[in-house]
Amino acid sequence: MRKPSWTTVAPFAALVALAATWGRHPGTLTVILVATLLAGAVLAAVHHAEVVAHRVGEPFGSLVLAIAVTIIEVALILTLMSSGGDKASTLARDTVFAAVMITLNGIVGVSLLLGALRYETVRFNAEGSGGALATVATLATLCLVLPTFTVSEPGPEYTGGQLAFAAVCSLTLYGTFVITQTMRHRDFFLPVHDDGRVRRDDDHADPPDARTALGSLALLLVSLVAVVGLAKVESPAIEEGVRAAGLPLSFVGVIIALVVLLPETLAAGKAARRKRVQTSLNLAYGSAMASIGLTIPVLAVASIWVDTPLKLGLGSTHSVLLVITLVVSVLTVVPGRATRLQGVVHLVLAAAYLFLAASP
Questions:
Q1: Cα-based distances in Å from 310 to 28, 79, 84, 90, 239
Q2: Ramachandran sector of residue 22 (left: φ over 0; alpha: ψ -120 to 50; beta: rest)
Q3: Which of 40, 322, 72, 279 is nearest to 181 (CA)?
Q4: Helix, strand or coil for residue 337?
Q5: Nearest CA to 141 among 179, 170, 106?
Q6: Where does the chain cross the membrane (predicted)?
Q7: Are the C-beta atoms of 279 and 271 separated by less than 8 Å?
Q8: Most buried among 35, 37, 103, 177, using CB within 10 Å?
């Protein structure tokens, strides 16, 4: 008999840990073990979502993966918001902005640097990447920048009507992009040869059979239950750890984003090493889009029941970082090719964000 893989074992191990720790105050060693199992459950959930996505095909496959990741992100945010009171009112903003900065600078920078170190110059499709970047820029401005400047509500908040408008616009943009990427203009998002021609040899392998897909669907559900439950168990320890390290509470958002985006980071780096930087950029910009375009609408609906203000507007420091990130991203994407210099520039911006998040 074939031994079960870690993606099969991890969800059930996390579920057992959830049953053993629910309603209790775990010690330090238990907290570390639970955090490890939580990360394993996140990785397993994304893996099984990819299997299901491969089976159902596009555009539904992209939606399955994006919805799974969004459930994980929203669950972590809401769990911490529900226990954090007014101090957690900016947690959604901090998490979404952290996801944007990590994807646009961290994942893109790592991908470009790894690809350029092996192939000197990496090439990608500027049309598709440019459209994706424009969508991310619009979503980030609408959901994270404008709330700082509206005057109908005091503070960096939207009114109920403004939040509903932003949520509808976010869903519209995300849905339009999915249709564009997977149906209407799929060629724009395929890898290209050194001469700029679209590579037709990068099609996926044959989809899994129905039995495998159903098994992954069941394991995906188990993983999501475990992630949501373990997030609740870990939330006090995460906040206490941040305070003990002398970090601002907003750094919790960075931790959530790092956990959620770990699978995409690993997948993007692997693709770049195989001369598929376009795939890496698709993962980076797609993750940023889903983090804003799906998470914000869900949080807008959840804010009806969660008795915590939803402050989305960025401060001046983060606004400057977002602007320079978007400018640099445009200069990276437009030529359709990049060297290790562009990778290092993006990684420096990612490092600047992390440093300022820890020491504002």
A1: 32, 14, 13, 7, 19
A2: beta
A3: 279
A4: strand
A5: 170
A6: 29-48, 60-84, 96-117, 129-149, 161-180, 213-233, 245-262, 283-306, 312-334, 341-358
A7: yes
A8: 103
- Residue the block writes with tokens 């994270």: 144
* CATH number belonging to the domain at 6-358, selected among 1.20.1420.30, 1.20.1250.20, 3.40.640.10, 1.10.3810.10: 1.20.1420.30
Q: 278-301 in b/e burial notation, b at 16+ Cβ within 10 A?
A: bbbbbbbbbbbbbbbbbbbbbbbe
Between CA 68 and CA 60 the distance in angstroms is 12
| Cβ proximity of 89 and 67 under 8 Å | no
Q: Which two tokens stand for residue 130?
A: 């440019």
| Token pair in block for residue 29 | 């060693």
Tell me the HSE value of 2 on the side-chain side, using a 13 A CA sphere.
4
Residue 299 to residue 282: CA distance in whole angstroms: 25
Rounded (5°) CA angle 336-193-112: 50
Name the one residue in this structure whose structure tokens are 């994942």: 107
Cα dist from 242 to 23, 119, 188, 270, 289, whole Å: 22, 40, 42, 31, 28
**Using one digit for the tens of pLDDT, what is the confidence trace for 40-62?**
888 888 788 778 877 776 446 55
Question: Distance between CA atoms of 253 and 357, rounded to whole angstroms?
Answer: 10
Contact call for residues 14 and 226 (beta carbons, < 8 A): yes
pTM for the model stands at 0.84
Q: Is the pLDDT higher at 66 or at 151?
A: 151
